[in-house]
Amino acid sequence: MPKLPDSSKTFNCREMLQKILDGDATPEQQQQFKVHMEECMPCYKGYELEMAIKALLQKKCNGHGAPPDLIEKIKNKISHITPH
Amino acid sequence: MIKSLPAGSDFLFIICLKKLLLLKPMEEPLSQQYSETEKHRIFHTEFMPHINSMHNFAYRLTLDADDASDLVQDTYLKAYRFIDSFQQGTNAKAWLFRILKNSFINDYRKKSKEPSKVDYQEVETYYNSDDVNRQITPDLRVEALQDMIGDEISNALNSLDVDFRTVIILCDLEGFKYDEMAKILDIPIGTVRSRLHRARNLLKEKLTDYARKMGYKNT
Predict the structure, then answer these.
(1) Which among A10, A26, A40, A60 is the top mutation candidate for probing chain B, defined by the most B β-carbons within 10 Å of its own β-carbon?
(2) Residue B171 to residues A30, A79, B15, B70, B98: CA-CA distances in angstroms?
(3) What's the CATH fold of domain B30-108?
(4) Is the separation of the CB atoms in B173 and A62 below 8 Å?
(5) Does B80 sit within 8 Å of A78, measured CB to CB?
(6) Class for domain B120-213, per CATH?
(7) pLDDT beyond 50 at B153
(8) Is residue A4 a part of any domain in this protein?
(9) Taking CB atoms and an 8 Å limit, are A64 and B73 in contact across chains?
């Protein structure tokens, strides 16, 4: 049985895009997807959109850090726990 | 119980205790006994640096600033109390997030008016169906997202069911991997994957609605 060249391997681009988004893709898989995107408009657009959403989330949904008085309160409570 | 032990059992008890203490570091590597100084050092150098991420996570779960602060405080006090079960060199952030998530479920979720849990069977079915390949080119456009300079994305995220919201936060904001999320949430990796997939699609649907309202045609 002849061996198929790499480019004709079954390549599920939706699954690969999710792996990349989820941070689960290996560097090789990322490279493979990058090459694939150059010739596949839907994948390119899908990737751009997902990355834009991720960037927007990081920019807009990360702003509820701990108030300084809470940090002090916790440190204070811990320092008052007596050794046993 | 101790009162009912016959005289002389003190000796046995001491033997057992000695054995336990001697064997503990060797036979039970999952729990250790830190000195008070070590406890404080671990708490301040390994736990406290995550407080902003923890508070943001708590806020996204409770959707209330005061509840978030209470939840974070409870979590940190619990983390200190159970510090002996924390293994140095392991992922402190994931360990803390897990405690926070459990505290939320046990102490806060009951109080809140969150709708009941997601039907995960439905999630799995969805993931395994042809629907997974739907929206190969999502209708939403990048330009529409770039115009969302207000609270649109935040509101969209907050409107998702808490279980979907959680995986988005853990993955996209905090960068946890599948195996870490599985441990934090006590669910299999396959469920993490399918829940994330569904969450991303739901978030896109919400954002598409916003884009339409903003006047983007054919979004």
Answers:
(1) A60
(2) 17, 33, 49, 24, 14
(3) Rna Polymerase Sigma Factor; Chain: A (1.10.1740)
(4) yes
(5) yes
(6) mainly alpha
(7) yes
(8) no
(9) no
Inform me whether the C-beta atom of residue A53 falls under 8 Å from chain B C-beta atoms.
Answer: yes
CB contact under 8 A, B52 and A65: yes
Q: What is the pLDDT of residue B12?
A: 47
Put simply, the answer to whether A66 touches B51 (Cβ < 8 Å) is: yes
Residue B184 phi, psi dihedral angles, 5° rounding: -60, -40
Indicate the pTM of the whole model: 0.78
Query: Is pLDDT above 70 for B116?
Result: no
* pLDDT score of B146: 83
Q: Which domain holds residue A58?
A: 10-79
**Confidence (pLDDT) at A5:** 43
> What whole-number percentage of chain B has pLDDT above 70?
72
Residue A5 lies in a domain: no
Q: Scan for tokens 């390119």, then name that residue.
A: A44
> For residue A81, which residues of chain B lie inside 8 Å, CB to CB?
80
Q: Which of B21-30, B155-164, B210-219 has the lowest mean pLDDT?
A: B21-30
Q: CB neighbours (10 Å) of residue A82?
A: 5
How far apart are alpha carbons B5 and A27 in whole angstroms?
64
The number of distinct structural domains making up chain A is 1
Determine, for residues A70 and B72 on separate chains, whether the beta-carbon distance falls below 8 Å.
yes
Q: Closest CB to B73: pick one of A50, A65, A73.
A: A73
Closest CA to B138 of B85, B61, B55, B216: B216
Check CB contact of A72 with chain B, cutoff 8 Å.
no
The pLDDT of B192-198, averaged and rounded, is: 95
